[in-house]
Design brief:
Elements lengths: L1 E6 L3 H12 L4 E4 L12 E4 L1 H10 L3 H7 L5 E5 L9 H5 L4 E4 H14 L3 E3 L4 E6 L4 E6 L2 E10 L6 H4 L5 E5 L1 E8 L8 E7 L2 E8 L2 E9 L14 H10 L9 E6 L2 E4 L3 E2 L2 E3 L5 E2 L7 H19 L5 H24 L9 H4 L20
Parallel strand pairs: 1-2, 1-9, 2-6, 4-12, 9-18
Antiparallel strand pairs: 3-5, 7-8, 8-9, 10-16, 11-14, 11-15, 12-13, 13-14, 16-19, 17-18
The structure holds flavin-adenine dinucleotide.
The site of flavin-adenine dinucleotide has 37 residues, from helix 1, strand 3 and helix 8.
Amino acid sequence: MIEVAIIGAGPAGISVGSCLSKAGISACIFSDERRKIGVHGTVQTIGRSAIEGLIAFGVSKQYLADLSHLPDRTVVDWQEDRDGGTDLFAALPRSLVVDQTRLERALIAIAVRNGANVQPSKAVLIGFDAVKRLWEIECQGRTLFARVVVDATGRAASVIRRNGAKLEMIDALTAWIVSSSTANLSSSLIVVKAVPDGWIFACSECNKSSLTFVGNEATCRLDPAYTSYPTSLVEACHEMGIDPGSREVTRSKSSAAVTCLDRAVVPAMLAVGDAAMALDPLCAEGIAKAIQSGERAAAAITEALQGRFGALIQYERSRRTELSEHLRSRARFYGESRYQSEPFWKSRSNLAWYPGINPKSFQFSL
Ligand SMILES: Cc1cc2nc3c(=O)[nH]c(=O)nc-3n(C[C@H](O)[C@H](O)[C@H](O)COP(=O)(O)OP(=O)(O)OC[C@H]3O[C@@H](n4cnc5c(N)ncnc54)[C@H](O)[C@@H]3O)c2cc1C
């Protein structure tokens, strides 16, 4: 019997499994072998505070240095009309550019050193055995039992939603990612640009340039064949010397939606990281927040397993506070004065909030 089964091996799942194992609680992390570890397998930026968090987690400075380069120059084409709107971009030159897949491998190595069992295979949750009060999980033809399940499946929150939680869509963003080795973007350069129908993030690493366009449903209609692109993405590709139709180019499209569960704690189950709430990629804080959420969830589970269920209320409260803070700062970063009449920019100029918690409407138990 395992104490805590964690479904999903992104930064949040690895973090919760690692912290629980360190605390002497048996934890098993399941990763979906059919999917590449990490959302995109591409480069991401990590801010200064996140770097400190990673070092505290155990990732060696040497390893982070090997993974990254500090950008020489950050080109920001963004015109904000509110005080403080530049803070985010001022922080970029002090950020690291990391390969998420390699970073997650480093995190998994730490989790294993802490005693976590990492299964490189998908686990299927069969259901809750009410007599034994255990979850029944099938993995590679074997049946396993766990007291608590953690949903760390990312934005889909696929496990906890089947068990009563509802996913609220706060902003339906989509990201197009185009990578090319022929692009003319010089290495050690980051470009962040506001465009009428979205925004663009471009950077270069290991002779490969990657361009991410983030837009909304109207500008990013689902097009699995990639035959039509948002106008600004085509323009940006042209500026970078990328032919989006070329066979050398790799393309992917993923959800970048801002989502939140109506509850991240249901009986004997918790959601962490993007499964609990997924932030706007503009903030470049996803990895740091996922790791912090894993640490907080591990602390709450440890307490709750000893009967102190108040820790679960605290976990839920801190999640809501964090989301409200995120939405407030997000509204500031989107204060782009040139495109205020464009539907994409109009829809994010309002200050947003998220309701507080009424503990009576929740069942906080494990
Ligand atoms: C376009 C874009 C750009 C971003 N840029 C940045 C950035 O620059 N900096 C930053 O810090 N963050 C960035 N983020 C956010 C960051 O990638 C995420 O917040 C972070 O990866 C969340 O971690 P997670 O562990 O919660 O989820 P994920 O990383 O999504 O991990 C979930 C894992 O669960 C696995 N899984 C799913 N279903 C199952 C199943 N049934 N069984 C087993 N495994 C399963 C998946 O394969 C995956 O490995 C960006 C996000 C987007 C969309």
